[in-house]
Write a structure and sequence with these properties.
By secondary structure, the protein is an all-alpha fold. The chain is built from 4 helices and no strands. The protein is globular, with a radius of gyration of 12 Å. The protein starts with 18 loop residues before the first helix and ends in a 5-residue tail after the last helix.
Length: 89
C-alpha cells in the first residue's frame, strides 16, 4: 500500500518532494488504485503555470510514486515525468 512508503524508506535519493502532491497521490492510489488524470494535470500546472513547484521537486515526487503506476498509466506517467526531467528516457 502507498501508505507504507515515504522518502526515507524508498531507494531513490531525494532532494525534496511535494508533500501536497504526495498526499493526494496516496489518497488516490488507496481509494482508486491509480493516479488520476487530474493529479497529473495539477502537478504539471503547479510547475509550468503557477510556478509553485520546481521541476526537480516534481520529478522527485513522481519518481517516488513510480512503482504505483499501473501498465495503463505508464505512458502518461513517462510523458509528464519527461517534462520535468530531460534525463528520463
Amino acid at each position: 500500500m502507498l501508505s507504507q512508503i515515504s522518502p526515507a524508506n524508498n531507494q531513490i535519493s531525494f532532494n525534496a518532494i511535494s508533500l501536497k502532491h504526495f498526499q493526494t497521490a496516496k489518497k488516490e492510489v488507496n481509494n482508486y488504485g491509480h493516479l488520476s488524470l487530474r493529479w497529473y494535470d495539477t502537478i504539471y500546472d503547479d510547475v509550468f503555470q503557477h510556478k509553485t513547484l520546481s521541476k526537480e521537486d516534481a520529478a522527485d515526487t513522481m519518481k517516488l510514486l513510480k512503482k504505483y503506476v499501473d501498465k495503463q498509466g505508464e505512458c502518461l506517467y513517462n510523458c509528464v515525468l519527461k517534462a520535468f526531467d530531460k534525463n528520463v528516457k
